[in-house]
Design a protein that fits this description.
The complex is a heterodimer of chains A (about 220) and B (about 290). With about 220 residues, chain A is of the alpha+beta class. Helix content of chain A is about 30%, strand content about 35%. Chain A has 2 domains: about 140 residues, 60s Ribosomal Protein L30, Chain: A, CATH 3.30.1330; about 70 residues, 2-Layer Sandwich (Alpha-Beta Plaits). In chain A, strand 4 and strand 5 form a beta hairpin. The longest helix of chain A has 18 residues. The radius of gyration of chain A is 18 Å and the shape is globular. Chain B has about 290 residues and is mostly helical. Classes of the chains: A alpha+beta (about 220), B mainly alpha (about 290).
Chain lengths: ~220, ~290
């Protein structure tokens, strides 16, 4: 049996639905952690059951709450629209056809209108408050955000993966699961690394400074 | 690692431990957590459960569609007077209602096993604790016993209304709570699983038919009745009623029944009371 007791009696969350409220908040918060830059506007493209039933389950409040950095158990979740307004963040929802095997899907796009940038994260709520990030700005991936996760984008050349893992090893970080992929041969490649421990900003700095690394992002999910 | 009740009961007997102790040992092996952290998590969750079970007793909550605003207070006030099933039963119902009201009004709850069924385990734990003077330690052990029961459903059947109907949500919650109630009253582990089995058998086939698709009606009522079902199921086991059908076979049959249910009766709001004229009128009033 591969079931944790804390998944049976849990998650601790703001109601009413673990898939439509808690999962939505977690997905949007994870998206914000991945983006991790200033934005003045955020848009939520909703697919599947999210698009049909989002108002009844407060999926809209939960998504905005997550984008504002709130967790699924934050009692300010019902105030999220006001919190966004107070911080000068605008938001909107629209239906979006997202190719996915999952029922509850969303694309969350962060805009910085001053710098004319846009960045999106796509993913799904799987039920029971569990989520899966399936695309980071077009980079296909599978991040379930249950443990601290590092996302590295690099030039597809020999030795980068070994350099990345060496930096982690030297800093006492054990790699739990590591996935490697690329868009085209010799193009942009990526590593998604799930770890057991909290990742210190100093380690991220070293990763970003490594040769051939284009970007390194950390999603420091609180491990149980 | 155990995969069903038979394994778990066997491991407990071989090791001379209670089921909750074996479940804790196995959880530590599975997740790599420490005993202290795990017990602290359970203790925190118990607090959240109790808060949600008390919050709406004397304060009406505001929910989407206002279908269940004040249901807890109504039952709580009534529980103080002359009732048919007794003050205690009505009080336990008001506790379960409270959790449902808190959940539907964007309050903080602990899913057990789901958000829609989050009132049953807290109502039974708190109701029995107060009424029978059970120590907090014993309540926590009861909660862990309930988690182990729930885990067996998660692994071998389902706890999603979309897959198995309401029997998979309120039914499983009631089954978990029955085991906890029996445990808190001093039952041995076999009797706890008998209680869990009785509770599921009593509601097997229960459909999921949420009016307007909201987690409110009939979810709140089924949390109240599910909590009471847990108490009477524990009493059946404590009285020494013979279970006849082993718990694991009850779980297996519940999974099969869930698969036999048409999609209209599995959280889609396309059948049951959701599509009654009154149910459809409520949908129209809320969503236009």
């Amino acid at each position: 049996m591969n079931v944790s007791l804390l998944d049976v009696v849990g998650p601790v969350m703001i109601g009413p639905s673990s898939s439509h409220t808690a999962g939505a908040a977690k997905l949007a918060k994870t998206a914000r952690l991945i983006y991790n830059k200033p934005f003045n506007r955020v848009e939520f493209g909703l697919g599947g059951s999210f698009a049909k039933t989002y108002r009844g389950h407060f999926t809209d409040y939960a998504l905005v709450a997550g984008a504002m950095g709130m967790s699924e158990d934050d009692e300010n979740l019902s105030r999220s629209f006001d919190v966004a307004k107070e911080q000068g963040i605008t938001f909107r929802f629209y239906p979006r056809d997202i190719q996915s095997e999952y029922e509850n899907t969303a694309r969350i796009t962060f805009y910085n209108d001053e710098e004319h940038t846009a960045f999106y994260v796509e993913g799904a709520s799987l039920g029971g408050g569990r989520i899966l990030v399936t695309s980071i700005n077009g980079l296909a991936c599978e991040v379930n955000a249950t443990s601290p996760t590092i996302i590295v984008q690099q030039h597809d050349v020999a030795g980068v993966v070994s350099e990345v893992s060496t930096i982690l090893a030297e800093n006492g970080i054990n790699i739990g699961i590591m996935k490697v992929g690329r868009d085209t041969r010799g193009g942009t490649a990526y590593c998604i690394i799930e770890c057991d421990e909290f990742i210190d900003p100093a380690i991220m700095k070293k990763l970003r400074a490594a040769k051939n690394v284009l970007s390194a992002t950390v999603v420091n999910i609180k491990a149980e | 690692m155990y995969k069903n009740a038979e394994d778990l009961l066997k491991m407990a007997k071989e090791q001379g431990k209670r089921v909750w102790e074996v479940a804790v040992d196995e959880e530590i092996k599975l997740t790599g957590t420490t005993r202290e952290k795990l017990m602290a998590h359970f203790s925190d969750r118990l607090d959240i459960m109790f808060n949600s079970a008390r919050k709406a007793l004397m304060q009406k909550q505001t929910t989407k569609g206002s279908l269940i605003d004040g249901v807890s207070m109504t039952q709580y006030v009534y529980s103080k007077g002359d009732t048919i099933s007794g003050n205690y039963i009505n009080y336990v119902m008001s506790l379960a209602y409270s959790c449902s009201e808190v959940n539907a009004s964007m309050g903080k709850i602990c899913a057990s096993p789901t958000a829609g069924s989050c009132g049953i385990v807290p109502a039974v734990l708190l109701g029995v604790m107060e009424n029978k003077n059970v120590s907090r330690e014993k309540v926590l052990e009861g909660l862990i016993t309930a988690s182990a029961v729930g885990g067996i459903y998660t692994a071998n059947a389902t706890v999603a209304g979309a897959d198995g109907g309401c029997q998979a949500e309120c039914g499983v919650a009631s089954s978990m709570a029955a085991a906890a109630a029996a445990y808190m009253m001093g039952a041995d582990d076999d009797r706890c699983f008998d209680a869990a089995g009785f509770a599921m058998i009593n509601v097997m086939g229960l459909v999921c038919d949420p009016v307007a698709g909201l987690v409110a009606l009939p979810c709140a009522q089924r949390n109240a009745s599910g909590a009471v079902n847990a108490l009477i199921s524990a009493d059946m086991a404590l009285a020494g009623q013979i279970a006849h059908i082993p718990f694991d076979q009850v779980v297996e049959s519940m999974a099969k029944v869930g698969k036999m249910l048409p999609p209209q009766l599995r959280e889609t709001a396309q059948g049951g009371i959701a599509t009654t004229p009154a149910g459809l009128a409520i949908y129209k009033e809320i969503f236009g």
